[in-house]
Amino acid sequence: MVIFALKNSALEAIERAQNLAELETSYKAYLGKKGELTLILRSLANLNEAERKVQGKEANDLRNLLEKRFAERKKEIQREEIVIQEKLAIREHVDVTAPGKRLPKGHTHPLTLAQTKAEEIFQTMGFTVAQGPEIETEWYNFDALNIPANHPARDMWDTFWLKPKNAGHLLRTHTSPVQIRYMEKHNPPLRIIAPGRIFRYEATDASHEFNFYQLEGLMVGKEVSVANFKAIIEEFYRQFFGKPVAIRLRPSYFPFTEPSFEVDMRWNKGAWLEMMGAGIVHPNVFRAVGYIPAEWRGFAFGMGLDRLAMMKYQIPDIRLLYSGDLRFLQQF
């Protein structure tokens, strides 16, 4: 009775197996080292000779039957899996001769377009592109630029100070620190531009952002003058906007230049637009980097890349540049 019941349950388990893993589990349950039939075969030694002959024959016959049926079922499952794989292969067939799908092209951000164009123009005039960190020290952002602590000129820059404030770290308010770092490591004469992101604690509107891009420039030599600066900026605007433009210089004040001036540009024969601040490098700035003011002169300037991009591509609101709106970006 035990052998008969075991035979029926084992054969049912073999038929229920849907994959090789399930079949292997059933095999171990009946014919494994601790399988039910294996335990019966081991227990035959405890029977008398007459019982051992009868039950031994029945158990061995069942083992041979199950071994055969397990092997047959294994081949059946393997054939079934091959059929399934072939059907999947047909369904997922790739025609390598078919034309590929054209991937959509990305669009270059207008700020990147403006910065790349500006860098190319200044490089043709002998300027090197310099970079610096966005997290700056108080020394590079203010002190070395002739803006000492408690100087009222610091109110001109709404600064994001990093905690703890007494550590003197901040998000740079201009890329002028790049000029200081570059002059510390290079001897004059030199020409550099420093494009990059800057941060100001300002309210956001159509023409202001707390995070925007600036391009500053510096030229140092023996006989550098305002006339040199004017000629370079006029040529830059001519190439950038693709047409000659008129500019004018208005007296102004910046602590790191003396004299200082604002640069205005006449746009489309209309009103004058303020475009940048500039001036002759202050002697104290040269002293901070180890230059001798009596031997060297230079001019420095700073303009907003955002404004250049807005004017060139007729963008009415600076916030569009940072919106991530694909409808806007796909126009470029």
TrEMBL record:
Belongs to the class-II aminoacyl-tRNA synthetase family. Phe-tRNA synthetase alpha subunit type 1 subfamily. Its EC number is 6.1.1.20. HAMAP family: Phe_tRNA_synth_alpha1. It comes from Candidatus Wildermuthbacteria bacterium RIFCSPHIGHO2_01_FULL_48_27b. Its cofactor is Mg(2+). GO terms for biological process: phenylalanyl-tRNA aminoacylation. Residues 120-331 form the Aminoacyl-transfer RNA synthetases class-II family profile domain. CDD domains: PheRS_alpha_core (cd00496). This is Phenylalanine--tRNA ligase alpha subunit. Mg(2+) binds at E258. It catalyses: tRNA(Phe) + L-phenylalanine + ATP = L-phenylalanyl-tRNA(Phe) + AMP + diphosphate + H(+). The keyword Cytoplasm applies. GO terms for molecular function: ATP binding; magnesium ion binding; phenylalanine-tRNA ligase activity; tRNA binding. Binds 2 magnesium ions per tetramer. Tetramer of two alpha and two beta subunits. Keywords: Aminoacyl-tRNA synthetase, ATP-binding, Cytoplasm, Ligase, Magnesium, Metal-binding, Nucleotide-binding, Protein biosynthesis. It is found in: Cytoplasm. GO terms for cellular component: cytoplasm. InterPro entries: aa-tRNA-synth_II (IPR006195), aa-tRNA-synth_II/BPL/LPL (IPR045864), Phe-tRNA-synth_IIc_asu (IPR004529), Phe-tRNA_ligase_II_N (IPR004188), Phe_tRNA_ligase_alpha1_bac (IPR022911), Phenylalanyl-tRNA_Synthase (IPR002319), tRNA-bd_arm (IPR010978). It is an enzyme of class 6 (ligase). PROSITE patterns: AA_TRNA_LIGASE_II. NCBIfam families: pheS.
